[in-house]
């Protein structure tokens, strides 16, 4: 059997925070503020997330570590689970994730577990979630949708309905 060759093209833009629109700048600043509230005594790796909802509400989260490492939670999931609990029915328009202590041009993406949770929310709302990754130097990577980072996500469509 011969399979058709398929290619994946990643769509994203890189720019500096000063070049972004006001809404994006404000969302990144909220993510940076959230990072300052991270509980990261072990890794010292502080991350903040800010989610802009369809009604204009911004929900934030920061990573929360625990001495038993698997018991902690990433900033993205802290924010996403708040949306699921507090804002039922609102869709997520944009997500800003900030890692303020990373300088230079390096951009840190969400971990695989966070990407999977993002994919679940994106699938449930059936609309794109723009993702903005920010570092401490003001460098941004802007992707039109979470699928840029996880093009082959596992969703409820893969579960058997039997």
Give structural attributes.
162 residues; 25% helix; 6-stranded mixed β-sheet; 21% strand; alpha+beta; Cytidine Deaminase, domain 2
In summary, what is this structure?
InterPro entries: CMP_dCMP_dom, Cyt/Deoxycyt_deaminase, Cytidine_deaminase-like. With 162 residues, this protein is an alpha+beta fold. The protein has helices at 22-35, 75-86, 112-125, and strands at residues 13-16, 48-53, 58-62, 92-99, 130-135, 139-143.
Please explain how this structure is put together.
With 162 residues, the protein is an alpha+beta fold. Helix content is 25%, strand content 21%. The chain is built from three helices and six strands; from the N terminus they run βαββαβαββ.
Q: Which second-level CATH architecture applies?
A: 3-Layer(aba) Sandwich
Number of domains: 1
**Per the principal axes of the C-alpha atoms, what is the gross shape?**
globular
The helix count comes to: 3
Domain CMP/dCMP-type deaminase: 22-143
GO molecular function, one term: zinc ion binding
Pfam family, one: dCMP_cyt_deam_1
Protein name: Cytidine deaminase
List the helices and strands and how they pair.
Elements: E1 13-16, H1 22-35, E2 48-53, E3 58-62, H2 75-86, E4 92-99, H3 112-125, E5 130-135, E6 139-143
Parallel strand pairs: 4-5
Antiparallel strand pairs: 1-6, 2-3, 2-4, 5-6
